[in-house]
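Field reference: sequence -> structure
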Amino acid sequence: MRNRKTALLCGATLAFILPGVALAQTPAETPPQDPANQEAGSPQADDPATTLDDVVVTVERREQNLQDYAGTAVALSGADLKAVGVQDITDLEGRVPGLSVANNGGNIEIYIRGVGSSNNTELGDPAAATHYDGVYLPRPAGIGSAFFDIQRVEVNIGPQGTLRGRNATAGSVNIVTWKPGLNILDASAEFELGNYQQRVFQGMLNLPVGETAALRIAGYHLEHDSYYTDVGPAQVGVAEAEKNSAGRVQFLWEPDSRWSILLGADYIRETGSGYTGTNYANPLGEGIDPDDIEDPRRVVARAFTPELDTRHWGARAHIAYDGDLFDIEYTASYRDLVYDYKAVTPLSPFYPGVLENLTGPGGLGETLDNFSQFQSITDSQSKTHELRFYDNEGPWIWSAGAFYLEEDQYSFLGSTGDRGLFFQGVEFNMPDVDTSSYALYADTTYSVTDRFRLTGGLRYTEDEKSRRGVAARYGFAIGGDNFSCCGGVRVGTEGFEFAGRSRSIFNPDTDGNGTISDQEVLDFYFNGVSRFGARDNVQTIFGNGPVPGGAPNRPPCLDTITGDFFVCPPDGTVSFAVPFAGQIFQQVGESKVDFVDWRLRAEYDLTDDNLLYGLITTGNKSGGFNDNIGNAGLAPTYGPETVTLYEVGSKNEFYVGDYKARLNGSLFYNDYSDQVLTSLLSVAQIVDFLGGPQEVPVPEDSSLALVVSYSYNAAKSRIYGAQFEGGIDLPWNLGIDFNLLYLKAEVTEAEEIQDFRFQADVAPTEAVFRSIEGKTLPRTPEWQFNINLTQAFPTERMGQFDYVISSGYRSSMFTTIFNGEDYLQPDNPRRRLDDKVDGYWTFDVGFGWTPPGDGRVRLEGFVNNLTDEQNEAAIIITQFDNTRFFTRPRTFGARLRVQY
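Structure field:
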């Protein structure tokens, strides 16, 4: 491996040294405006770009021209994103080669060049760090509605451990808003109408406060109907309807040339029906090819309309002092997030014959009348503090500082198994989840000569995590005729509510005698329910406690699934009713890890317009711990995963005749070690994996069959390729830019891992350990390409007309580490295991008109996803599900902007 890496980098270096070669990584940007106008958000600054002008970014914690940055990054202006109908962070999917963004059931998952994380539990960490005006967001839920009054979005590609800290192994995304402009009175309002009854309003007001201060207020509201349609008889509301509002206030005070104080606060509220995805298990089980399903969002829904309620607000302060020897800045922030989602998943996408296939012996109505549901709550309060000393003037450019993060979480996940046999739900209730992290860092760039610079950086991080709570799997043994087992119950029907935060029992052994009785299990279960539904019968069955066989006064029996094996006794009462034991686990876990990130870089200016560079940089994603094995048993830990990037590149600007052009590029190689994989394993499998009962004692009264989530350091991968970007200004105000990525990402070494597409207590012969060596990493299309065409038509009498056409291509990719392989039937693979997304093109169009005058009125139209190509952004495959989350369908609309 080392020889291959050395040959790759040496060959790349020779290629880049050849004269005339020019290589980059940025799309067309907004042309520079007067600094005052830029700060205030002038009309000109909000027009889409058509020329290759300088782009100022803060990738290295200081302002610099992106062409002067010796590394790979992308800057997307707010105006350019708006022009083609981008609404939130998930719409960045397909717009930047190497960047994958998916909304997985409300969780924002960001992958960059194959590095990412889909562990969305309270114990998980993202691998790509999200920042909001430079402030780290440990939980980015709800941040999509912050995409208003923004200056740009910066995507830093590759590990950013030294500069950005923890959980930036893939890179980072920084949303940069417009700041208050001094001595400027400015305001704007924007109205938008679109399909799906979309209505959007944005407004901004910039007020000077004397000559040294300014206030900027911005607001946003978006709402639209669901992208889904219920084509079944239930006619209930379905997912992806939105009604979002947000506001932001910033105050800037610069009392003199040395001091700058920026205070900000924002509030985001997202409601609607959230994101359930589409479960393809039914059509796949019937042998239907997914490509034959015309519209993945035409579904057969059931039960009730999903309900989303997200509140995310924060405040921050940034204080900077321009000293004589060095500068100082202090940044403090507080973020408060409450994400609450209650939902049912649709039964199936529509295809000819689906209603007949869903009709059981009890009729279609019985199938639709299933209130199995889930509720997920994340309540996170986080604080960050950072003190930084720096000097941005050569020959030594340096930065040193300290960072501290504290996060307190409450986490809840509950589900009900309505009509189910043996399974009536789960509950993960974690009232005390704490994380603290601190870091010390230093980074410097030294100009050895006017053209040659060296950079070195080092960062030490220490993370501590702890959790207290309880996890439970609920199952009831309901006896039928001749004491047969087991029937189902009704639970979760209209009006059902979990207790959630109101739970008061976390240790089911309430009498403290060391054992958990059936009555204590029931007391624990009932303590987790705030209110039973109108047609639930659990409370009726167990209202007087457990019902042993032969007990008098037995409760009524209900056959919840017509035509199955279960039959109620002739007298209409259950023959017995008791809870399954050993499936309530107290959660007591903690971990402490530390790691060091570093970087080295050399850069050389061949000319003022031609840059060569080579770098090595690292990033670490924090380790953690798993669910306890048994009741308050061992909580196995896992260590950090590390990415080391080797990259050489060149950035070049030049002229082709009279036309300005840019061509940039890089070759890269990532060592991805101690990669963390997450599987659903039974307690027995985890014990065997860790060395057996002699190494991992299991507490008494613990079910070995209970299936839990288990994360462990299991693999080593390599990710390599080449990225090229360029553009040219042509006559007639025509601009073209492109971005091309070739990417290979594969597992080189790995322990065999459990096939988590199968459930150990259902398919024990298939939920076994399999080899993943040689597999392609998820979400890594080999070829990724974007091209943009922009043109402006200024006229003397009719103002200016302009348009942008944007197109992107992604080759095929896999969405799980198993690459769709069927180990049991390799020659005839089952469709439900297929996780491949075929290659596809996307097209977006935007057009605008600025009437003659001072440019304060503008009309725009857009079509996002012109061909209505709805592709899988994420696929979740389990024993019973093949749930797919799709990119946004075709949306179009028109907007009017007025600047005052």
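Note: The radius of gyration is 29 Å.
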